[in-house]
Amino acid sequence: MMRQLKVERYGDQIFNHSTVTEDERLLALAAELDPGTFRRIEALPVRPDWRCLELGAGTGTVARMLAELCPEGSVIATDLDLELVRARREAQPNLTWLHHDVTRDDFPVGTFDFIHARYLFCHLRSRDVDLSRVVNWLAPGGWLLLEEPASFPIESSPHRAYRATGMGVFTVLADRIGTDCRWTRGLYDHLAGTRLRDVGLQIDHSLVGGTHPMGRFWELTVEQLAPALAALDGITEEMIEETLARLRDPDFRELGMATVAAWGRRP
Ligand SMILES: C[S@@+](CC[C@H](N)C(=O)[O-])C[C@H]1O[C@@H](n2cnc3c(N)ncnc32)[C@H](O)[C@@H]1O
Predict the structure, then answer these.
(1) 180 lies in a domain?
(2) Rounded to the nearest whole angstrom, what is the distance from the C-alpha of residue 189 to the centroid of ligand 1?
(3) Which domain holds residue 41?
């Protein structure tokens, strides 16, 4: 079957924040990733008066954590769609939510002491250009921390249906949104190729199956993309059903996506 290439932006259709399960999908992602993110942020030389920028904030868990960590500073949390933070906008006087497209809208050069983005750059077609613009928004001495998904643990899975369906997810996202989870594999080199210094690299692995939140995130991702997955060569509805059944099986254990984290400081 010919692959249907419908070019769109994140959220136009796929992962639209009004989709019934999108809040739960992104909360499961946050439950999986927040401990590693918070650990990495707290390992930086954080000052209470830092001016922070959280790009593509999603449900806003990291933005709220930053607002607590920097009570004398400020946090701007951006997203294309603020629907998912609307219900949770409890008053934090130093936290501002901003409708902002990182690929189109700017900030003045040298504005922030800390910028964080998680699972965002993989979805941006113009990610290399966007990265150098974002680096410009850092004040001298400011830190950038990026955390992005990598597909290789799924690519090498011994479970045929899980592997094929999972790789199908990356194909659908690449075709429709321009997502690239191989770019993220080279995140250290991408940051080292900018003017950032003291560049560091870490990786966190995840598990699916049992009660692991990454399993729920992946189940809701596969469910949402099921019609597009079934239209791909080599993926049948039975394979999608088998994958979903595995992910719901309390005795299933497999590797989920890895999270590659890299950070650096503007001199
Ligand atoms: C996979 S979610 C990750 C959410 C959050 N960073 C997290 O890790 O919990 C990607 C988020 O980036 C937002 N996003 C996608 N493209 C964007 C863009 N061009 N500018 C700003 N936000 C964007 C989406 O709306 C979504 O909330």
Answers:
(1) yes
(2) 22
(3) 22-265
Residue indicated by tokens 């790009």? 55
Mean pLDDT of the chain: 95
In a domain, 17, yes or no: no
The answer, yes or no, to whether any atom of ligand 1 lies below 6 A from the CB of 26, is: yes
Return the residue whose CA atom lies nearest to atom 14 of ligand 1.
Answer: 56
Give the domain CATH number at 41: 3.40.50.150
Each residue's pLDDT tens digit, 176-185: 999 999 999 9
Question: Domain tally for the chain?
Answer: 1
DSSP code per residue over 5-17: -----TTTSTT-T
Q: Give the model's pLDDT for residue 112.
A: 98
Point out which residues pair with 97 in neighbouring strands: 77
CA nearest ligand 1 atom 4, residue: 58
pLDDT given at position 84: 87
- 209 phi-psi bin (left φ>0, alpha ψ -120 to 50, beta other): left
In a domain, 144, yes or no: yes
Digit-coded pLDDT (tens) for 197-234 = 999 999 999 999 989 999 999 999 999 999 999 999 99
Q: Are 53 and 106 in contact (CB under 8 A)?
A: no
Pocket test for ligand 1, best of 12, 16, 81, 123 (most atoms within 8 A of CB): 123
Ligand 1 mean position, distance from CA 167 (Å): 21
In a domain, 224, yes or no: yes
Q: pTM here? A: 0.96
